[in-house]
Structures are given as structure tokens and as C-alpha cells.
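Lecture 7 notes: from sequence to structure.
We start with the chain below.
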Amino acid sequence: MADDADAKQTAPEPPKKKSLKTLIIIAVMFIGEGVGVMVMMKALGKPDQVQGQGLVDDQLATLERLHEVPVVSDRFPNSFTGRMWLWQADILTQVKEKNLSNVQGALEDRKAEIKTGISRIFRAAHHNYFTEPNLETLTRQVTEYLREVFGKDASGENRIVRVLIPKCVGFPADY
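Predicted C-alpha cells for the same chain:
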């Protein structure tokens, strides 16, 4: 009996047959899924035709037209580097036509306050802000200040669309 046990252990086991049953089941599932997707897509039908929106009427386009409103044109001091600099700056805002009268009225009523707020921004600015190619930091700071001053319109949009600083030229003031 011991010899029979040793013979079984040393004899190579016959290779197991690979079952085609599993592969057939997987293939049937893939084909069934494909057929199911095709049937669903046919049942849902074609998508609706896409229709382009017509042109905006002239009155609405007029209300959305942008106007440039001058806010301030002045010299602002800055001594952040320890040396006094005067910066000649022109600041304008872009305003939609529907907000134009509100912004112009607020500019007339609060002219000194707005000039003081912008002057405060220029006085506290780092010298690097004035040497940026597009004056990004100063523009962002002035935009936030003016949006705070002018607020939002009835639809919840800011009255100030954008702030423009077309001129910002500095020269030392301590000759």
C-alpha cells in the first residue's frame, strides 16, 4: 500500500480541461448587453433638433452696451520705498448703459470720498505694483473698492464691469 501511495504522488497529474462553459457565458452576457443597449437607444428615438437662439433685440443690446466713465485723473503720492514718488494716473470704469445714470450720479455725490479711497490704495501700494506690465494688482484693488462704493443693481450684477488704468506714470518727487 505504501508503494501505491508513492506511485500516486510521483505520477504526473493529467492536465485539467479548460472549461468552455465560462467563456460561453461571458460571451452571451456581452452580446446580451450590446443587444439591450441597441434596443434601448432605438426605443428612445432620435434627439431633438438643435435650434439656434435668435439675435438679441436692439433694445436689450443697447442696455448691455459698455460706456467708459472717467472716475479720477490726478497725481497720487507713494513713499513705500522710502523715496517719495508721485504717480500721475487716469482711472476709468466700464459701465453698462442701464447702470450709467446711477454711476454718474454716485460719482457726482461722492467724488471726494472716491478720490480719497483711490488715493489710499495708491499710498499703501508696493512699488512693484506700479511696475507690473498691466497693473494687475492696482486694477484689482481699485475694482474691488469701486464695486464696494457703487454696489449692485436690481438684477444682482455689479454696476462696475471693469476698471481701466490707461495712464500710470511715476516720477520721483524729492529732487
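Points to note: The longest helix spans residues 20-44. The mean pLDDT is 87.
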